[in-house]
């Protein structure tokens, strides 16, 4: 009997994989078992887009199929978009599947799309995944853009996840663009995060490389008055002195008087006209109190 051609093998393998992916997506444990009993290697195959049967099972939350496929599959396999099966489970909020995959996935790896699994869970704002992953991960690990999970929680404006992640995080981390966690909190108008970061020792550094503003000046410029009020009450001198300290050309603190003069010359009325209105901004009556604190430095 003549052996099958290579092309015939490829077509038969593709047909088997297609049947396995469909069965896994539907959650048909019996069909998955039957296919794997004949061709266990099918669990390791992937489509031209990089999808495996484990991806399909994770996407649709089929925990029974995930348990069958996991011992025979690579949970770190990524699709063409850079998604692991665990990303599928997090995105579609399948807690049992995420828990099973987290134990087998390389959580220290940065995926081809530049994400960490914990950072992705924080950006999605899904607490169950964060609770699963945080004990298994280094919360200080940045993604491909230098953003830590704490930064992702700030961007998502999720106070509960921020509070959960901050004890394990570096509050003075800086991303690849030069923005600190405190900078991002101000930019996103996240006054809760600003308070918590200051309480944990966050430094009032320069905003980004080349920008001649500290976080208090940035908050005022953006019209984020709740953040400006927190900063002016709890870290006014630090904001100004951090700017002076980061200036390499400072000699005998000669720059500090000019910083004080700049603080006194801030015109909040001009800033108010240029700032975009925010729904959460405090009443305009708070602006004068912030100005008085800036002038008193």
Structural summary, described in words:
By secondary structure, the chain is an all-alpha fold. It folds into 3 domains: 1-106, Serine Threonine Protein Phosphatase 5, Tetratricopeptide repeat (Alpha Horseshoe), CATH 1.25.40.20; 116-170, Ankyrin repeat-containing domain (Serine Threonine Protein Phosphatase 5, Tetratricopeptide repeat), CATH 1.25.40.20; 174-297, Alpha Horseshoe (Serine Threonine Protein Phosphatase 5, Tetratricopeptide repeat). The chain has 18 helices and no strands. The chain has helices at 6-26, 29-38, 53-59, 63-69, 85-91, 95-102, 117-124, 127-133, 149-155, 159-165, 181-187, 191-199, 215-222, 225-234, 236-245, 256-264, 268-274, 285-296. Helix 5 runs parallel beside helix 7 and helix 7 (117-124) packs antiparallel against helix 8 (127-133). The longest helix is centred in the N-terminal third of the chain and has 21 residues, at 6-26.
